[in-house]
Amino acid sequence: MSFLLRNLENLASDEMKSLQETTMSKKQLEDFFAKAQSNTKLQEQIHECGENNSCVVAVGEKYGHKFSPATVSHWQRDH
């Protein structure tokens, strides 16, 4: 029984970490896009990525932002 409870606690902890990472990633993406609004060079780099979300992630990393291709996809779907 205690084994099952420990596993459930670990699962809950992992789910919380994942939720926090997703929230942080979304904030990083929003900050990156806000920066891009006033930076034409950055806008061009994003535009050159086209549909390649991994490319957008790489450009974001160059500017100090960390987010995943999945976060970009979710943002595109929601906006």
Topology, please?
Layout: H1 2-37, H2 40-49, H3 53-62, H4 69-78
Please give a handful of descriptors for the protein shown.
79 residues; mainly alpha
What does this 3D model show about the protein?
With 79 residues, this protein is an all-alpha fold. The protein contains 4 helices and no strands.
Number of helices: 4
The average pLDDT is 83
CA-CA gap between termini: 46 Å
Instruction: Give the amount of beta strand, in percent.
Output: under 5%
Query: What global shape is seen?
Result: elongated
Biggest pleated sheet: none
Q: Estimate the helix proportion, in percent.
A: over 70%
Element-by-element helix/strand order: HHHH
In terms of structural class, how would the helical and strand content be classed? mainly alpha
The count of DSSP E runs of length 2 or more, i.e. the number of strands, is 0
| pLDDT < 50 runs, ≥5 residues | none
**What integer value in Å does the Rg equal?**
17 Å
